[in-house]
Write a sequence for this structure.
């Protein structure tokens, strides 16, 4: 059986400064809580534009958070590209998307509430 291709794209607008969004991704322990099913290894720190990681675990490949300034906030793009590992649950893509949406919406709520 061929490995399951993982190709996730998500975009969420957050009305907050890109710097405030970016700093949320600096804590390695917090990242481990966001993505407990992945071992991440930083490949490229793009400063205020975001981060790119190599991932292993339930998914093997690459993952990125790109922060694009837009109006009075930023669009947070999230990409995952790779293959599901043989030990990954069959619904790994849905689980990852749901976990990310919970995290990014909590971040949105927190940062937008702070700016009011």
């Amino acid at each position: 059986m061929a490995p399951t291709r993982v190709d996730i794209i998500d975009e969420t607008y957050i009305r907050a400064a890109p710097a405030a969004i970016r700093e949320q991704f600096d804590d390695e322990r917090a990242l481990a809580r966001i993505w407990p099913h992945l071992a991440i290894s930083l490949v490229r720190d793009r400063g205020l534009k975001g981060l790119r990681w190599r991932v292993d675990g339930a998914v093997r490949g690459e993952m990125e958070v790109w922060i694009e300034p837009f109006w009075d906030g930023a669009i947070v793009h999230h990409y995952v590209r790779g293959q599901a590992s043989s030990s990954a649950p069959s619904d790994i893509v849905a689980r990852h998307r749901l976990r990310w949406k919970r995290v990014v919406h909590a971040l949105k709520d927190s940062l937008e509430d702070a700016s009011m």
Q: What stands out?
A: The two ends are 52 Å apart (CA to CA).
